[in-house]
Design a protein that fits this description.
Two copies of one chain form a homodimer. With about 400 residues, chain A is an alpha+beta fold. Chain A has 14 helices and 20 strands. The mean pLDDT of chain A is about 95.
């Protein structure tokens, strides 16, 4: 990205994404290889009078060495100071921006049990922090920037894959507009209108069918609420947790999912690819699964804890959204989930239940909301997907025909 | 550095510097711009069967933004988790390698009061950790690698300053040898022999004189011990805290320093240059100072706390040591202090008192050891320097004539 585009990118993420306020602290999570992005955001944040900007640097090359060489026990030992450093953000009113800059094959060859064990330990140790994140106790935003390896995977035949990927990300982030912040406000209005339509019908279930073999009905949680990516934090301020975003989503009922669902795109999880996979549900629970590629990784995800055998999210995205229209497989959930209807194994968001932020775990569970230390999205929206909304009286309202909205 | 040289560098620092043991944790402190160095060290450490390698990344560009924009109060607020993360290293038997990769003018234009206030707050918050470092409760090593800006400053007329600086660092680190580890063992023997000579004479004071105007007598602490950079950690294992190193050093008596001492080289402190400066001592205390450049920064150092008005170290280095012979001004204390005799304002090392690691603060103070939250070396060794050792009976033994050892 040029300096001018990088500046727009930084300002959009700060103003639309985390909605940074004067005298607020900001944490940036960034790869050491992309320090220019963290610098641009820090600079823009201080121009918006941030109190302080801290950066949590990441390095996949060293993480890979550590995964390969450290014992599972060592990998599972999460220092208390690290947990405290995350809770510190909530306690001190910080917001945070995570700049995902991943090499999709970074962890190829690392035993997936080790990655899963470390993720499980991190999830357990950071439970309080993640609960705060999931109930909007902190404003946050995940964005992506290209890496060489990722770009090569997305554009294997390009002469300058990084530049091509950069251009696609700029387009999806609406940075070509003279006023991306205004563009984003308009876009969010459209998404909110869709959420309102869905909420006004209060569907009890959705049914997904396509030619690939998906025939899947998922019940929705009691008191579920469709929301767009624009959410209200506990402090009353809006933020958008994922940019770009094209989805409206809600809470499935953890005991109500039946049938077979086929993956529509590969899923890249912790640097490993899972492709051409299928899940069979009964009473909300995964009772069978298969994968042409990455079977063990899929198994690890499902076996993380009780909650990863059930669903925590269902999201609708039409095939005519800009990311879907690009017809590019990004090998990156942040983009790919915005090109396709998707569901997620694991933790559900209290924000997708009316009044959910104020409910106890027991109350949320009674509504049907799922709980887990994980949350893994995967894409199910094909170009021939049909989605029907099922009303309380059993009547059916078509929501998607041939992969796109009909409302 | 080529990959092969980088590997030698990593192995030398790990084996000679911190003396990493099997199943020991390692922390690397590294600039995000030099991630390839951290990676090489992490790789070599895992080959030596390190338990885990953690990296604490630094970024001067963002630090500069933070210094310029955050309030002094915010800069002085050191989070508890950060303090805990340092104490964690000691409590869990880690060693650490700090890779200094500094831009000497990184903080030009930042008010020196802000830098001083932040350093003071950090020093106070990390007092326990620094006490452990200073009494060898942890094995550690500081090394340097070139940065573009630093190299330009050292070789302003070179076509490839980074390469030139890299070559000098490789030479000073003895990496051209086929077996740098063996070379280092031989070198350390020479330094240890000098320390033994000095210890056997048990001087009460040293007198420094030269044509520049230095006429300065510094008393040595009671029970002082000359040591080379090879030290024994509390766990009984040797390590070298600074690489390269050419010095033997000991503890001055904090109440015994008189006369005028002139700087021999510029001092680069927190990215600011102090040059052509002079300190006047009476009964161990700075009673006057001047500086042609960086007067305010020098003032901030001296006024940090009570201890920074007195001396914590005196070190002897001959002008024929490899770094001195290169006749290069590195604008970097790690190198420049090894080209020249130097003294330090601030904290003294308990290790330079016989049995000092087991003494209380009060006992150390009674021996004359200085205490402070800071420790700032500055160079006083010119090519015409004369150093005399003064014995208990008043007799004088010449140690240096014309800037070099005569023993």
């Amino acid at each position: 990205m040029t300096d001018a585009v990088l500046k727009k990118f930084a300002e959009t993420v700060l103003q639309v994404g985390v909605n940074l306020q004067e005298n607020q602290g900001l944490e940036i999570i960034c790869s050491v290889e992309k320090s220019e992005v963290a610098e641009a955001i820090a600079k823009a944040a201080y121009e918006m009078k941030a109190k302080i900007v801290r950066v949590r640097w990441e390095c996949e090359n060293i993480d890979r060495l550590t995964y390969l060489n450290a014992s599972t026990q060592t990998l599972s030992d999460i220092p208390k100071w690290l947990v405290d450093s995350k809770n510190y953000l909530v306690e001190n009113g910080f917001c945070y921006i995570a700049i995902a800059a991943e090499n999709p094959s970074a962890f190829n060859g690392v035993p997936s049990e080790k990655i899963a064990a470390a993720a499980r330990a991190r999830g357990k140790a950071l439970k309080k922090f993640f609960e705060n994140v999931m109930s909007n106790g902190i404003r946050w935003c995940v964005v992506s920037v290209p890496t060489k390896e990722w770009a090569k995977q997305v554009f294997p035949n390009s002469e300058d894959p990084e530049n091509d990927l950069s251009k696609e990300i700029e387009r999806s982030m609406r940075l070509h507009s003279t006023d991306p912040v205004k563009e984003w406000k308009k876009h969010v209005e459209t998404l909110n209108a869709r959420a309102e339509f869905l909420n006004s019908h209060d569907f009890t279930a959705l049914r997904f069918t396509n030619g690939k073999g998906t025939d899947f009905t998922v019940g929705l949680a009691l008191g579920h609420k469709w929301i767009s990516a624009e959410e209200k934090a506990q402090d009353g301020l809006n933020f958008i947790a994922n940019m770009p975003t094209e989805e409206v989503f809600t809470a499935p009922h953890r005991l109500k999912a039946d049938g077979v669902v086929k993956s529509a795109m590969p899923l890249c999880y912790e640097g490993q690819i899972i492709d051409d996979f299928s899940l069979t549900f009964k009473n909300g629970k995964v009772v069978g699964f298969s994968a042409a590629k990455g079977y063990n990784t899929l198994k690890q995800i499902i076996e993380t804890d009780k909650g990863t055998t059930r669903l925590g999210e269902v999201a609708l995205i039409g095939k005519n959204s800009p990311i879907a229209k690009s017809e590019i497989l990004f090998y990156n959930t942040l983009f790919d989930e915005n090109a396709s209807c998707h569901i997620a194994l694991g933790k559900g968001y209290p924000t997708t239940i009316s009044g959910g932020e104020q409910m106890t775990k027991r109350e949320l569970s009674a509504r049907g909301l799922n709980d887990s230390i994980e949350h893994v999205d995967f894409m199910i929206g094909t170009s021939d997907l049909k989605v029907d909304g099922i009303m309380k009286d059993g009547s059916v309202i078509p929501l998607f025909i041939k992969g796109d909205w009909v409302i």
